[in-house]
Amino acid sequence: MTSVNISSSETVWYLTRFSKYSRILRLVAWILRFAYNSRYHNSKRGELTVNEIQIAEKKLLKPVQQESFDDTVIQNKLKSLNVFTDNEGLMRLKTKIVRRKDDENFKCPIVLPSNHLLVERLIFENHTNSCHSGTQVVLSNLRQQFWVLRGRKTVQRVINQCIRFVNSRPLNYLSDDPDDLTPLTPSMFLQDIQTVGIPDQDNIDNINLTRYQQRLRNDLRNRFRDEYLSLLVHQESNKAGSKEVRVGDVVLIGCDNKKRLDCPMGLVFSEL
């Protein structure tokens, strides 16, 4: 495997020359392709492969972590998170869904700092590629592969720098008649028309009701995965300040074969 190091002194040139994260990523991938072809006889040809893009991304993000996560940051900001280093030297977050059958990047996302220019480029491009979506959508998209420290505030800060040309300003006459068609807006041409709630099933035409209900269930599962499961993080259980069980405390007696709601309660009389 070809070894190409991107040190902190070399990160400035591509951040100043390219404003898009994807262009920086492809640039690094082409550099790795050139280095590989210069070293081996079986040269690679054609378009970049998915594997080459993934390798380039790891090469790109590893020095970002090295620059941003010194011993002080690890002790202060990462102490409460279950962070580990994988076999490629990348710091990842161990979530509570590691036993779930899912993508490895989703179960153990790459940890990224909140104050690095490359991370801001990543967030901004995700925001524009998703038709200038809001904080929650961008955060859910990023969470498929990354865990950005102070994620919500960081995404909000980056999004606020965007001057949106996608808006809901009517392009034609806005009628007072409720029976008239909804006026055209620029956002209709760039993203799906937003709806509120679930349409009445009686008004669904030419759609099999069973398939429609199944699609709703699938959408709900996807939202549950992206917006809830993605936020489940292991916390250190023995960190300072945690409450210890004392005499006189009312406690919940755990049972493996019962739900927590059905577990019996007890009173502590003495300590062992």
TrEMBL record:
Pfam families for this protein: Integrase_H2C2
InterPro entries, from UniProt?
Answer: Integrase_H2C2
The record places domain Integrase zinc-binding at 117-164
Q: What is this protein called?
A: DUF5641 domain-containing protein
Q: Which organism does this record belong to?
A: Trichonephila inaurata madagascariensis
Q: What is the lineage of its organism?
A: Eukaryota, Metazoa, Ecdysozoa, Arthropoda, Chelicerata
